[in-house]
Each structure stands twice: as structure tokens, then as C-alpha cells.
């Protein structure tokens, strides 16, 4: 019985020692964890902090699903991390896919493929035929100088052309801006309250 009690006390002491600290320990790890947590929870990102070029994300998605064409690409928070969501399709086979690629390490976070009866070749495009996302963001920032909340490039049902839709944020203010993907002209700028 004494042995069990001693073992229990010793185990408890080791556990408490591992969980506790002496207060004089270096807190730099705690501070860096806090900063990483702050960045992970931040709802916008500066253009200069985007790590992966959309062309690289598209290439990775097209390497996975080789017989499909691009129909939409977006940049947004996905499970707390900034990521590209690349949507593709093969209109003849009535298939579509979605590949999520992490911005920071370019790893595939998820991928899926399914049948879709409504695929149309009108949605397909080549990213190289469009203004770059940087040019589109910079055009939007001339209207409202905010950081990127998210953006997407796709064929607009309302406008019948390819557009960049973006949310730019500064403090508590947010603007939804649409830029023509071919010309780089800002088509709309709406403050979102």
C-alpha cells in the first residue's frame, strides 16, 4: 500500500512539474505561439504576405486532375489557414473537381471530384489570359486601401464576363470590389457594413 501511495505521489509530482513552470523560464515560445495564433485568426492578409502564386496552385490542381479546365479560383481562409480553392471541370464528361492548396506550404489540403450535370464550357478560362491577381488587387486598393479578406476569379453570371470579386478590409470597414479580369477596370465598389 505504501508503495502504491509513493508511486502515486511521485507520478503527480512529475506531472505537475511538467505542466508548471518556474516563472523565470524564457517566454519567447509563448509569445511566438501567441503571434502565430493572432495571424491564424486574422481575417485579412497583406498582398505582400501571400506566399503562393495562383499559377502554382492551378498547376498543382491540374496535375491532380489532368483532363479538367479551370472554371474558378479563389483565395480565402480554409480551416484557419490561407488557401487557394481551385475549381475545375471537364464539361464533356460532366465532371468537376475542387482542390484546396495551402498558401504557406503549397500542400494539398483537400481534393474531391464529382459529377455535375450543369457544366458549361462558357465557365472555363486560362488564367494566363487574365490580369494577374496582384494587378486586380492593386486596382481595387486604389478605390479602398485595405488588406485582402478574400478574392475569386470566375465568370460572372450577372455581367457575362470574367471578374475578380474581392473583399478588402481595413479595421472594421470592408469593401466588396469587382474588377474586370481582362481590362483591370474596377466595375463596382460597395461598402459592406
Question: Order of strands across the widest beta sheet?
Answer: 4-3-2-1-5-6-7-8
Instruction: Show unreliable segments.
Output: 1-39
Radius of gyration: 23 Å
| CATH architectural label of the largest domain | Roll
- DSSP helix count? 4
Measured between the Cα atoms of the first and last residue, the distance is 68 Å
Largest sheet: 8 strands, antiparallel
State the name of the first-level CATH class of the largest domain.
Alpha Beta
Global outline: globular
Protein name: Peptidase
Keywords: Signal
Pfam families: PepSY (PF03413)
InterPro entries: PepSY
Folded structure, characterized:
The chain is α+β, with helices and mostly antiparallel strands and 193 residues long. It has two domains: 45-127, Roll (Nuclear Transport Factor 2, Chain: A); 130-193, Nuclear Transport Factor 2, Chain: A, CATH 3.10.450. The protein has four helices and eight strands. It has an eight-stranded antiparallel β-sheet with strand order 4-3-2-1-5-6-7-8, with helices on one face. The protein is globular and about 45 Å long. Mean pLDDT is 83; it is low at 1-39.
